[in-house]
């Protein structure tokens, strides 16, 4: 690597990660270009908000795990669909970074095969060796996870519509939005408020970012342990989450709770889920002969039942004459 430096004299470090993908280059590029779906497709990504997009230039607010911690930053991307190349830079990098730029490159290798390369160029304040090592470790871990996720999804691109499931449930609450949102945000109190939650451990750092480990009961009496990262937006009445430990039938699960004013002083509370099914686990979980159609129904019913129960209890809480 050449000894390039930033305007502040900090040394620029480069990492290179690449993989071969058993899918056409256009498919691979499409997965990278749709960053709003990254939390569903790639393990490190928790949530992505698209702030601006004109078809070529894009600004994104992103949340992702890095070495076990949740980091957030705003990225600017330039998309070139013809060259299948996406350049990005972080506008306000998360500490200890002082700069972070990079490039996604997709190259066709032959019929149905592509090479995907991910470049990162970064600098850290004062070029501290321990900070450089931390960023290199986080970049290596996340890049490997992202490339592996892309490769796994792209291999199944022809069946992706069967594996991905999205749905929502809503309730109308005869109360203002604030107590409904408070019930959903105060997840640490759910074991006392929700019969299907038997245990929940929660930490919050920084404010608004919640790390949860939860044990839930299903209709057949079995229990599932999940771990999640939640990002809370009180002013918007929205809580987004990504399960970092999922039940066996799902390879990914993301969701969002929204609380919005409804007609005549009511509130509409909604739970939205998006799931990627783990096809190889279908018969192991649901029994011999079970197929994806049955798995989709099972997941829809199980997740919908629990989230609707949560919304119903939020409704009772908000409509109670004494809100605790």
Automatic annotation (TrEMBL):
<dbReference type="Pfam" id="PF10604">
    <property type="entry name" value="Polyketide_cyc2"/>
</dbReference>
<dbReference type="InterPro" id="IPR019587">
    <property type="entry name" value="Polyketide_cyclase/dehydratase"/>
</dbReference>
<protein>
    <submittedName>
        <fullName>Aromatase</fullName>
    </submittedName>
</protein>
<dbReference type="InterPro" id="IPR023393">
    <property type="entry name" value="START-like_dom_sf"/>
</dbReference>
């Amino acid at each position: 690597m050449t000894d390039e430096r930033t305007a502040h004299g900090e040394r620029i470090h480069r990492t290179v990660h690449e993989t071969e993908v058993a899918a056409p280059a256009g498919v691979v590029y499409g997965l990278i270009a749709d960053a709003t779906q990254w939390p569903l497709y790639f393990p490190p990504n928790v949530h992505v908000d698209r702030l601006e997009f004109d078809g070529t230039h894009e600004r994104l607010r992103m949340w992702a795990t890095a070495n076990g911690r949740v980091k957030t930053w705003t990225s600017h991307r330039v998309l070139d669909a013809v060259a299948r190349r996406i350049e990005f830079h972080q506008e306000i990098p998360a500490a200890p970074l002082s700069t972070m730029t990079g490039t996604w490159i997709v190259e066709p290798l032959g019929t149905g095969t592509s090479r995907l390369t991910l470049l990162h160029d970064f600098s850290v304040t004062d070029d501290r060796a321990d900070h450089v090592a931390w960023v290199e470790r986080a970049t290596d871990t996340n890049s490997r996870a992202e490339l592996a996720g892309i490769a796994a999804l792209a291999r199944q691109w022809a069946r992706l519509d069967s594996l991905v499931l999205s749905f929502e449930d809503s309730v109308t609450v005869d109360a203002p939005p604030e107590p409904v949102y408070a019930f959903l945000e105060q997840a640490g109190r759910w074991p006392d408020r929700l019969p299907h939650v038997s245990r929940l451990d929660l930490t919050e750092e920084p404010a608004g970012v919640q790390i949860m480990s939860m044990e839930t009961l299903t209709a057949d009496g079995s229990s599932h342990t999940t771990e999640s990262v939640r990002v809370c937006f009180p002013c918007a009445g929205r809580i987004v989450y990504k399960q970092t430990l999922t039940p066996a039938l799902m390879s990914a699960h993301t969701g969002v709770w929204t609380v919005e004013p409804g007609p005549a002083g009511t509130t509409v509370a909604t739970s939205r889920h998006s799931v990627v099914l783990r096809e190889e686990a279908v018969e192991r979980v649901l029994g011999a002969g079970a197929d994806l159609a049955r798995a989709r129904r099972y997941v829809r019913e199980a997740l919908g039942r629990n989230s609707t129960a949560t919304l119903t209890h939020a409704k009772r809480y908000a409509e109670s004459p004494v809100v605790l």
